[in-house]
Design brief:
The chain is mainly α and about 120 residues long. The chain has a domain of about 70 residues: 434 Repressor (Amino-terminal Domain) (Orthogonal Bundle), CATH 1.10.260. The protein has a two-stranded antiparallel sheet with strand order 1-2. A hairpin with a 2-residue loop joins strand 1 and strand 2. The radius of gyration is 21 Å and the shape is extended.
Amino acid sequence: MTVSLKKAMNRVSPDRRKAINARARELIAEELTLSDIRKARELTQQKLADLLGVKQESVSNIEKRSDLLLSTLREYVEALGGDLTLMVKFPDRPAISLKTLAELTPEKTPRPSPARR
């Protein structure tokens, strides 16, 4: 006999239900699109475009792309008030934050010395 999710959840203690709902919110938050994040920050594409100094169409194009430059993504996230962190995960070790990539800005990008040019 099958049991509906609602009935199954009613059998769970209130504390456990609260924990389940909190974890569900965490999982959903991990899967937001750029558009979802922008909307959650209560910004329109036009307002974000103004903050980035680009046209609204550019914001729309960024949100539709599946392949972005890290610098473009960083600028987008920073315009929303966030910081971009790049994580590398391997199955046999803890996640690694690539701070040297995630935190590079044009001003911080290493330049070759004159002798190497």
